[in-house]
Write a structure and sequence with these properties.
- The protein is globular and about 85 Å long.
- The N and C termini lie far apart (about 100 Å).
- The chain has helices at about 15-40, 45-60, 70-85, 95-105, 110-155, 155-165, 170-185, 190-205, 215-230, 235-265, 280-290, 295-310, 330-335, 340-355, 360-375, 390-400, 410-430, 460-470, 515, 520-530; strands at about 315, 320, 475-480, 510, 530-535, 540-545.
- Strands 3-4-6-5 form a 4-stranded mixed β-sheet. The protein has a two-stranded antiparallel ribbon with strand order 1-2.
- It is about 55% helix and about 5% strand.
Length: about 550
Amino acid sequence: MALERHSVPAPKPPVAALVPLLVVLLLAQMAVAMVTTAVQQTPTIDEPVYVGTAAEYLREHRLRHNPEHPPLGKLVIAVGVALADPYVDPSFSGDQGRWGRHLLYESGNDPWRLMLFARLPVIVLTLLFGLVVFVFARELAGAAGGLAALGLYAFSPDVIAHGSLATLDVPAAGFVLVSVWLLWRARRRPRWYVPLAGVALGAALATRMSTLAAVPVLVALAALSVWCARPSAEPRRRALVRAVAGAGVVALAAIAVVWASYLVVDPRLRWAPEQQVPVVRGLRGLAVDLLPFPRAYRDGMRIQFGFENQPWQGFLFGRLYTGSLWYYLPAALLVKTPLGMLALGAAGAVALLAVRRLRPAAPYLLVPGAVLLAAAMLGSRDLGTRYAVFVPLFLAVAAGCVLAVRWRWTPVAVGALVLFVAVSSVRTYPYYLPYSNEAFGGPEKTRLRLHDSNVDWGQDLGRLADRLRERYRGERIWLVYKGSGVPSSYGVRAADPREVPVRAVRGLLVVSDSASAKATGRLAELIDSSRPIDRVGHSITIYRR
């Protein structure tokens, strides 16, 4: 009797079998870095507002606070807030900043626990975006390119820093990247991927209004993808109609997601803003009126334009100024992006333009990020690279494309630069927010060149409390703190040195670095006449008087 033959699947090559393991390891180290950061940091300036608004969505199902940002990102945060199940005081009334602080510090809730739970959904979302970075780069440059891109993403200090916070910057940037990736895939299967790309774009618009700048680009890319997917025998006029229809599908799907995010909060779309909505005239006012979104979204845009008209202070390379500098964001990114990522990102952009098989991907990877960066550069708030946190996402995917260049030394050079980025990132652990690269002195020197969310966003109040308790117990504390945390809730008993004569300030003077960067008058005199003796988290300086 003949033996029956069974086909045995060929074993995977050893290198290919390692790819899933390496992906898991890279994302695992990123998760550890983000969770550690989330556990150790106190609330940054914006977080209490978002957490308080998320709790309000859960309790009241009303649109009231924080209209300048759409609801979706806060609904993501609300998942963690719901799991933490904090007590929400129904009798409290106040603006969004006071509401968030009241929830964290005055309602009997544990601020450490509540903030950790609020940050966890954003951490999970950031890790999922890492998978998109890997798959996108793998489709363009193979598994090695995907791993290189994921390595740069997973070790990016800016992504780790803001991906571990209950804020909206990384979610909005990630949704834009997902939309671009889906549009790239739509070149082969537009029926499935074009609507999904619209959903992802809508998620970005429903998280941060700044992503509106990407809408014309992504709509045009949708038309391009449908056009490229046309059968060779299809008449050009019909193909053009299909391309326009594809662009329309993306736009309609995005609009539907924005409306859905508001309806999830309140099916009746009640809108009673707690703050004054400015009147916006001219072309801006006309553009806002024409937006096909709920009134709350349009009023939020008006509030954003009101912010843009305010005189914001900036700080760049030791210079304090009022207004904005068009080159602020490129300069800040040069400081805060790892050198290896800068080199590989630039090489990746060249590869996208120079390598024939990569050229079709160039509009997808280069144009959306460039348009978003240009729009951010026109803003009036020079407050941090978080306004351009989409740059490392697109830069990572572009960097992976370098491995499509078939030169003998390419894999070695790419591997060495990715390793350089990893070492630079690990060295700053767990102080990712004040990171700057080695060319600018590392995280300890960031305060000399940048301020606000680039270095000191209020995140080290808990670490300050530990330091004072360990080394300076019983000493008189004078505190100038920039943040939303409440010092007394962490055991910091301090007075404001700006409210008494200079000669009365004796003991320890503790100053947030952003306050030092903007110091004038009495505070500048106090700092100049004091001796620095300690540093906390690269964001707070302790002086002896």
